[in-house]
Amino acid sequence: MLRDSTATIVATTGDTGKQLLVNGVGITSLTPITKMMAHMPMAFLQRPPKNALTICFGMGTTFRSLLSWGVPTTAVELVPSVPRMFWYYHADGAQLLQSPLAHVVIDDGRRYLERSSETFDVIAIDPPPPIEAAGSSMLYSKEFYTILKRRLRPDGILQQWLPDGDPVVRSAVARALAESFPYVRVFQYSSSWGYQFLASAQPIPDRSPAELVQRMPESARRDMIEWPFEPTAELEFSSVLQRETSVARIVADDPNTPAMHDDHPVNEYVILRKLNGSRFQLDALVAWYEHTKNL
Q1: Comparing 275 with 59, which gets the higher pLDDT?
Q2: What architecture is the 28-259 domain classified under in CATH?
Q3: 4 is catalytic
């Protein structure tokens, strides 16, 4: 257990494996999904990557997987104690933090993007759960993507994770991405494991699982199948690619929801949606929010 000015961190091992809790909330687990948050966008790039950025450190799995590509990698984490637990989840964590390629920044992810002048080939974002968490909309909004695009190279790829959510939230996030980037692809791991969005200013090519694997350095391939769902890297990619969906299908589940904005954080309008989920209640809550913010 570690405590700092931001949060209380608990690293523990339970019946389902190692766990990370921030202020009592389970954040993530050791899963191939957080590895794919790195390997998917890196392998889909039109050229070999030069660097990468991940926002939200968690157990450090995505950061570690990006480093396996042998490029400078920056991780931005709001809670100072979280990266200090890297060693607990990965035996090579302490060693990786000493690498000249590794750079950990303690800061708000959005503020870091506003203040940085560096550009990146891949930016991977894994916002903390739950989806309704106060302030989490700031990592899904159109205003956020406007800031982010200044730090993404013209042919770079954004990887945005969405841990499921109801149709209203999914539609708002999908719209925000589609209205911010001309090219967006969406992959769903299962009916209950969330969505991985890849977004770019340039077309994201269609590549077969074999082609994606061929673009990976050997160290990245080894990382990908460290504890996989499938026995090979090619099958791991195949299991994800075959579940590709589209922004249009996600939006169709709630076509009247507008894109996520800083001043319209629909994922945080949770109480009335959970009571009933009716359009009347959502509109009433939005009207209440618009009224009270001006008081």
Answers
A1: 59
A2: 3-Layer(aba) Sandwich (3.40)
A3: no
